[in-house]
Amino acid sequence: MSRPLLSLRGLSRRFGETVALDRLDLDVPPGEFLALLGGSGSGKSTLLRVIAGFEAPDAGQVLFEGRDLAGVPPHARPLNMMFQSYALFPHLTVAGNVAYGLRREGVARAERHRRVAEALAMVGLEEFGRRLPHRLSGGQRQRVALARVLVKRPRLLLLDEPLGALDAGLRERTGFELRALQRETGAAFIMVTHDQSEALALADRVAVLEQGRLVQLGPPRAVYERPATRFVASFLGGANVLEGRPDGAGGLDCPLLGGTLRPAETLPEGCTACALRPERIALRSGASGPNTASGTIEEVAFRGDDSLLLVRMPGGAVLRVGHAEEDGAPPPRGSTVQLSWEAAAVVPLLG
Amino acid sequence: MRRSLFPRLGLLLGLLFLWLPVLLLAGYAFSDARIPFQWGGFSWRWFVALAGNERLLAAAWLSLRVAASAATLAVVLGGCIGWVLARQGPFRGRPLFGALAGAPLVLPDVVTGLSLLLFFVLLEGATGWPAERGATTILLAHATIGGAYAAVLVQARLATLERELEEAARDLGAGPATTFATITLPLLAPSLVAGWLLAFTLSLDDVVVASFVSGPAGTTLPMVVFSMLRLGLTPEINALAVVILLLALTSAGGALLLLRGVLGRR
Question: What is the interface pTM, i.e. ipTM, of the complex?
Answer without folding.
Answer: 0.86
